[in-house]
Structures are given as structure tokens and as C-alpha cells.
Records
---
Amino acid sequence: MKDLFTTGFFHFSVSKYFCLICLNFPATKYSCQFFAAVFMLVPMKALSFLVALLLFSANEVLKAADAVPAAKIRVLLITGGHGFEKQQFFQLFRTNTELSVIEKEHPNADAMFKSDRAGEYDVIALYDMRQDSSEQAKADFIARLKEGKGLVVLHHALCSFQKWPEYIKIIGGQYHLDKTVVSGVEKPASSYKHGMHWKIQVADTNHPVTRGIKDFEIDDETYKDFEVLSDSHPLLTTDEPTSTKTIAWTRSYEGARVVYIQLGHDHTAYDNPNYQQLLRQAIRWAAKRD
């Protein structure tokens, strides 16, 4: 009776661990047949050792899977048409271990929007300023956004494509290089001022792009009288008189996540820890890694 009780208890214990092991393996017809055969045929002492070994191995496999780092976010970084401090700016991307960066300068960037190159990146980052592009290049750019590529637009890229109405719909705003008429209302040309020390307020502290960032000060260029579409979601604002109030926002375009950040003229901005955090989190959010 004692042997029967002991054996039965052992069967119960082994069965319990057998179930735990099965949870860590794919439940296919063959895996189930294998474990059933092992459980029925192997002597109890050997089975006890085998169960422990398999359970240990399964746990190690799971630990190893958890330890695999997430794939890097692949960024297509586009520049050209406006001068900037190249070494300092590119360092923002090159020192970010979460990123794998492809750097392209106009006129060589448009080829990256072709469908056969689309698999090489997850996010498009614009730090360019251009007015002309072929209709095919524009169509390819929109096609990539419709596929879900994220878009991060920085600083002077707000000035691009003054004569392409779809661009303001994509990025959510526009710097007016000249006096213009918007919805029947005459708008003055936008203006800028270098070397300003100004205060920034975080409009949405819960958004993944601004999470963990508090109101801060920065030395940077300001833009004034630029357009911000009403359906853009404000992230940063300022009361600085030489600036438009909303200076960073998010929006969606055809399923793509879009971020615009007005900050980032030169190294005085690049070196600001708040700007660095904004850029990291903007790329992460646009890539849907938040």
C-alpha cells in the first residue's frame, strides 16, 4: 500500500512537471506523442532525471529568448538644401545604440523611396530643405508613408515644398518663405531669429515623445508666424515673442506616425539633453516601438 501511495504520488509529481514542460514546447501532434512515449516507457528514476533536465533546458531557452536585444530601428536620415553642423548633428544618430542609420543627401535621397529600397528602413527623418521634386518621387514618398513608415521632421524641413499642398497635410505645418494666402486669408512671411535663449513648456507630459521631460530652457533659433494645422497634437509650446506658440506636435498621415520638432538649429540645441531625449523618443514613437 505504501509503495502504491509513493508511486502514485511520484506519478502525480512527475505529471505536474510534465505539464510544465509541455507548456514550454510547441503543442504539435509529434511533440505530444514524444512526451507521452517518454512518460510511459522510461523507468521512474530515469524519468525523474529526464523531467528535471528538460525543465531546466526549457527554462534556459526562455531566458535566452528574453535576453535577445530588440532589433535596431532603421532610420533613413535625409539632409540637403540647407547648411548645418554636420559632425555634431550626425553624432546624435550615430551614438544612439538603438538605431541603424542610412544617411542620404539630396539629390540622392529620392531613390530610397522606391519600393525596392523600402525594406531597408522603418523611419524617415527629414533635416532637409527643398522645393523641387519629381511627381514620381512624391508619389513614392507617400506610398512609403501609407505602408506605415514613421516620419520625423526636424527644424528647417518645415520650409520645404512651398508649392506642394500635400506636404503641409503630411507634416502638419509650414514655414512661409514669402507672404501667402491661406484659406482666403493673407499670411505674412515667417521669420527667424538666431541665438535665442528661451523657455519651453511641455504641453503633453503623457505622450511617449515627451514622457519624462519637464519644462526646460534652450539656446536655439526661433521661428515665428509659421502655419500649424489645427488637427496636429501639440507636444511643446512657448511664450517666447519671437516664436509661434506651438513648436512640436504629432499627427497621423495615412496610417503613418508623424512628429515635427522645430528645435535643432545647431550644436547649442544638439547638446541640450532635453533635445536629445526628444529626438530619441520621437524616433521610437514613429517606429511604433513605444
---
Amino acid sequence: MKKLTFKELEFSRQFILSPHKLSVPGSWSQLRIEKNYLSCHQLLNVVQVKDLVLLGYVIDPYEPLKSNEEILESLSNELNNLESFFNAVEKLTGRFVFIIKLEGEYVVIGDATHSRPILYYKSQVNHDLWIGSTTKILSKYIELEKSDNYDSFVNSNYYKNNINECWWPGENSDCKNVKRLFPNFYLDLSKVESIRYWPKKDLQEYSFDEAVKLGQKILEGSMVGANERFKLAFGVTCGLDSRIILAASKKIKNEILYFTNKHQDMSRSHPDLSVTKKMLAGLKGKYRVYSLNTKVPETFLDLVKNNVSFSRLRKVTAAWSALHCFENKYTVISGNIWEVVRLYYGDKKIKEITAIDLAKLEKMDDLKFAVDAFEQWLTKYAETCGHLESINVLDIFYWEHRLAFWAGQTWVECDASREMFLPYNNSFLLRAFLSVDKKYREHKSDELFHSLIKTMWPEAFNYPINPKDYPFSARVKDFLKRKLKIAD
């Protein structure tokens, strides 16, 4: 694939569904879907089989050698009703959006965490429906106004204190009348309504051993499937989530490029560098360290800024490094998402939680519109799911808000520089692990996840995970580097 110019990377891997044909760059693909037109950036894969359109890619971990087309052929046989289709899609890994026609009506559904965001806008004048990846691509073709909450967001303590990790809260976006589709919801195009399809009943409980066996099957199968499609690179750290993915890569270890990003505030003795280097040498994996000291060109900063709202410098720096190192030739594996099954916010019943509590978890309690947005979500959740005893509402909040909007923004920021592969992005896997007794999933235990590593690649467990004996002198040095920006 030829190296694309910054102009050609505008709205990289994004899509827009419009009521009329748009004037888009000649390299983009366009597809007529009934009365609508689908326009996709040249790096976004599009496959159509019968009444099923795929944007992105899907992997079947149970039959990892299947292509997108073969998987869609199988899925097309499941288009008897929405429930059967959802049951089939939940077992797939990937980064995808589906547009499907069922019983004469169209619906849109995303992957487990909506790693390819889905936003929609209905004109208040002519009632036309527009769907796109970001408010940025929508605003290129239709006139949108900033949200009334825009100024309060950028002037908030939350935004100022989290400039590199911020995310816009709630269903409503940063533009008026543009909404975002939550994970576990689908969009009914005829009604222009988002509808929750999961959870509808209590979780099927998995035992410790059953979860380990299932996790191994899905993660290893997903890695083999991704390796069949892409040239893979994996950013390895000392973290637990990273180690699980490393263990899942054993079957394809000779074909993956393992690497670590060295941020400016990291000394060479940082465990993500020192331990990882020793570990990959011991496991005989091809390993490199990429420095993020490279100054990001203003043209690239502007590119990402124009591709996604509230682009974050730390994420853009990583994206530029990836473009500089990989030139869009590698698909990069990420270990994000797994926190959803590790009681990130703790364990609470629906009756014990308020919108203020949710806002405080994200340090957004100074944002009234965030509290209001969480109140709206919490009320609707209580109406449809409040009776479910096996589900921790804080896990679902993390899944449908932080993963969808914090991580979702990260993937869009990355899209200018590389495709991403997210092994944990499988609904069936996440739901199964959420059903396991919490005593095995808590951070103070992690017994379940350690067992998963030892089952997939025992030798990978022989190296420290998040070592607590990180030398004090190195910690001080890293602290000073963060504060004073001194060189290594």
C-alpha cells in the first residue's frame, strides 16, 4: 500500500451515511443502500453480502481462518430476526459496524465497545437522517451547532485537569441534535431510536475453570484470525491486560513485532522497558523500543484535530509515532477493554448508586450536564435492567460510557496512523467473565487472569507483572522527568 498524504488521511477509516450522494474524494468507496448513500474512507473496509453490510472487519475466534465474506455469508443465514442476529454477532471479535435490513427495516449495530463510533443526526427541518463516525465528518457535510454545554466542558476543572484523557460524557454529543449510540444498543433507522438489546436477563454463570477455558479459546482464536488478515505489531507493557494478550499470542509469536513506546517521562529502568525487554528476550520474540520524543508536526496535529473533537496531545503523539514507525503497514494490537471485567469502579447495586456518584467516579461532578446525562442513563437502565441481580451496574457504566467514549475516541485518534486490533473486543467473552465470582476478578486477587496466562503461555508468567519493587531511584527520576521534562 502506498504511503498516504495527510490530505488523504482526512477522516481516516471513518464513514458517513447520507440521504443523498456526497461529493467525496475519488479514493473513497460509495455504496447505495435503498434511498441512502454510504461513503467510506479508502482505509475502511466495506463488504456487502445480501442485506448485510460490514464496515471494518470481523473475526470468528471459533473458525479463525474464515474471511469477512465467509463470516457474512454465515451471518446472512441468521437474519431471521434481530435476536438471532445479535446472538451470532456477540461471538465475533473485531472493529465493526453492521448495517442490516431485516423484515423490511434497517438497523445499525456496532461491535462490543463501539470501537468504531456511531453518531446520528435527524434534521429538524426535513427529517433527513445522517449517520457518521464523528461530529467532525458530519459537520463537513451538514451545518451543525455546538452543544450548549460546549463552553462549560472546555472551561471545567475536569477538562483542564484531564487534558490528555478527557472524554465527552453522555448520549448527546458536542454538537446539537447529534446523538451517540451506546454499546449494547442498536439504532432503528425508521424510528431513529436507540434500543437496548442487552442485558435482558441475568448472566449465564461461568465457573473459574469454564471461564479460563472459554477465554483461551476466544483470545487465541482471535489472535490467529487477526494474524491471518494483518501484519501485526503489539505494544507490550508490564501490565496484566498486556500479559494476557502476550500469552494469547504464543501460537503466532514468530510473526508478531513486539514493541514498547518510550514516553518522554520514562527512564530506561522503567519496568515497561526493563522487564519487557528481558521478558521478550527470554520468550524469543522480536522486540523493539520506539521513542515518543519525536516532535509532532503541526500539520499532523491539525489533521487529527480536524478528524475528531477534543483530540488529546498524548494520544496524538502516540499516533504520530505509530505513523512514523509503521506507515500504516501494521495493524497494532491493544490490550485496552479488559478493565471492564475487573471491577474497575467496585461493586454496587443499582439502588446504591446515584448520578452524582457516577460523575464523581470520573471527576466530572463539576459538570452539571454530565450529572444530568448520567441520571438519564441510570434511570433508563433501572427501568429495563434494574431487576437483574447478577449484573453490577458499575461494570455496565464503565462499558457503555468510559469504554465507548474515552477508548472510542482513542481509536479514532489512532485511525490516522494505523488500524487497531482489540482482542478483548468480544461481547461473549466480556459477558462470560462478568459472570465469574468477583473474588477471582478483583484487583487484589487477579487469580482468574493469572490462571489464564499460565494456561496459554506458562513461561510468560515467569516475569513480574506491575512489579512493586520498581527501584525508588528510578521512580524519583521518572517523577522528575514528568514534572521538569528533563531528558533521559
---
Amino acid sequence: MRIACWKPLAACLPALILAACGSTPPQPEAQPAPAMVATPSQPRLPEAPPETGPLSEAESDIGRTFNNAVVVMPGLGGDAELVTRMGAPELAQYFARDGRRTYATVLYMHGCDGLSGLTPLRAMARRGFAVIAPDSFARRYRPHQCDPETRTGGLNLYVYDFRAAEITYALHRMRRLRWVDQSRLFLVGVSEGGLAAAHYKGDDFRARVIAEWTCNGAAIVRGLDAPMDEPVLAVVHADDPWYRGAAAGGGQRGDCGQYLGIRPRSRSLVLRRGQGHEVMGDREGIAAILDFLADEARRAGYRGS
């Protein structure tokens, strides 16, 4: 570029500078980056092991809760109830003898310290129900949410999510079982399992029982999420030591009655006689639970035993 300038050099300098700024010198072509070569100062990284994929369903923690479930079936031909585990050979032998097609089924959610006994499950089986009780402690990692010695809970709040998932997963697995009457499912939860039962939002169940839980406390546990057209029976001792005084922060006293709303054939039974936490061993409590389940099953067209 030529710039004509007949003025003194000082006057031409601005034009020269602008001309220099406006021109773009040619750029060299970009060269590809050199390939990385292993040298003593730059050792080659070992290859990653081949991808083996996720765990199988049976190996997963949630799968283990159902695979290790306790199953209690009504007795056949005058025999006592069958008590076994999910997938056990005895269960297959039972159905080989049984001419019945399906059973109204109770999904039983145990408390914070595991299944405390088989008495209530056997009693339900004698009324004609199949009972499935998933084992939350079959998980490889399953800390306690409660401390039985001090009668306090809320130690690992994420355990509440474990229990909620165990309900939805159990329903998923129960749909594969030909002997489960999918139209006559019932949910029974005790203590920590009662809390899980109270907060299950699905409409899969004909009715549910909430035992040993008050529906009161901190926001994470408070309330009742059952559908408004689902019958609910709640049973708790009036002087349950887990929910009174400083150990429970004073906020868990009471019962589920205030949350039942307009749900049909629902009630909150507060046991005045006796004391303690367990209601399944209380004569009045277990009788009310069995009658409630049997009545709702009959309303659904189930004859029972």
C-alpha cells in the first residue's frame, strides 16, 4: 500500500500508523498436534479394564430385600401355615399341591430393627392371606435409623427413602407372581415400616394398616399420603414410650386420626389398656387389624380361608 504525502513527515505519521494497523499479515497454517509418544519421563497409562456392566437385579441391594423376604402362606389340608423365604423350594412345592389360583396378599413392612416375630404374619395367613415381608436388612449397606436402647429414631434419615423404595420395588416383583391377586393387595407397616406405609402415595392397595406410628413429628415424617378413597386403620398405644417425652422431642405424641380426613371406613385406634410399643402382640390391636383386613378383602370379593 502506497500513501501519498506531501506534508512534513510528522503530519504523515498518523496515516502510516493507521495503514499498518489495518493490514493483516499472513498467518502460518495450523499444524496438527504431535502424537503423544511414551517416553521414560511420560509413562504410558495402563488401559482401563473392560466395562462389565451394572449389577444384576438379584445382586442389587433392592433386589436382595425381596429375594430374602419372609413368605407366609395359609395352611393346606389342615396343615399349619407355611413359613419360608421367597424362591425357596418349599414355596414351589406348596403351589404344586395347591389348586387355588390367587391369594389376596399383604405386603408387610417390618420395623426399624427388623422382623420382630411371625405371630401377626401367621395370624393373617390363617385368615386366608398370603403375606410377603421384605427384609430391609438384606441390603449390603443398611444402617439403623433407630436406637432401641434409647428409643429414639431419625439417626440416618435417608433410611426412610430406602423403605419407600422397598414398597415400590416389592410391587414391581409381586406383579410377576402368578399367585398374587393383583386386585386385592393390602399394605401393613409397623413402626418404621408404618411410617413408610403412611407415606406411600400410590393407589395399588385396597387398604392399609399403620401400626406403632403416630403420623406426627418433623416435616419429613409428618402426615398421611394414602389416596383419599383408600381405607386406613391406624393403631398405636396411648402411652407409647417411643413417642412421649424428651426422647421424641415431644412432637411425635398423638395418633394418625387428624390426618384420616374423609377416607372411607378409616379410623385411628388408640389402645388405652397396657403400654409399650408393639401393638401386634396386643389382643385388641391384632384383632382390630385382622378384622379390618378381612372386611376390606370381602368387600373386594375375596372369600379368604
---
Amino acid sequence: MPFDGTQKPRAINIRLLDLMIETLGENGERWIKYRFDDGNACCLLGAYHRVKHKLGRRGYGESVLQIINQALRDSRTRVHDIVHFNDHSETVFAHVRGLLHYARGLAAGSFPEAPDFGGIKPEPAVPLPIFLAIEHKPSRERGMN
């Protein structure tokens, strides 16, 4: 019986990755950026959590995130974080699907060729706004002593 504790971890990881692909849609029809889950679509990490919740089992597939992170490290990208990869301005669903298929190959114990996401590099940090319009008054003028 699936996920009843009799399957080996490798088979569980493969099944979880398959379900993640299914959750996002083969063509990304249920994949989103910049949000975890909006009820209709979800990001890469949101798909993992949906699958885990759907299966209702804790402790299964924890290594799937490690496998996906390994797949990111193997790919020719300098973005090694699932969330940043998903939300990167240059990431398209073909990248996400390719990453999950590659991770599936790693989970199966095969050594497929790593995907080439060479154009995806860390994006510069967005500077926080500096509020220069704040009036500076001496403390006694602000009512402070």
C-alpha cells in the first residue's frame, strides 16, 4: 500500500516528486511566483507542502527537499535556494519542470545530465526605501523633554 511504511524511501521520494509535478500541472497551469499558495496555484515549495498535506503523513519525503536542493546545486545556476529559484525573474515553468524531472532522476539513483539554468543568477537585493521626508525637530519641539 502506498505510504503505509512498507515502501522504500527512494520510491516514496520518486512518488512525491511525481505528485509535485502533477500538482503544478504538466505545463505549469497551477504554478505561481511570489506567493506560496493562492488556493488555485502554488509555488515549488507550496507544491511540496500540498503533497505532504494531501498524503497526511509526517516524516515521509523529508529528503525530497534535500534532493531538490542538490538538483539546484548541480544545475548551472548560482541560485541555490528553492524559493529564490522559483521567484527569480528569469525562471519560467520549463525550468521548474526540468528541475523536478532532474531531481526525480537523482531520487531514482540514476545520474541524468544536470539542467543548464546558466542565465539564472542571484538577483541584486532590492534596497529598502530611505525615508528622507521625515522631519527632524529637536526633542523639545516634538513634545519630548
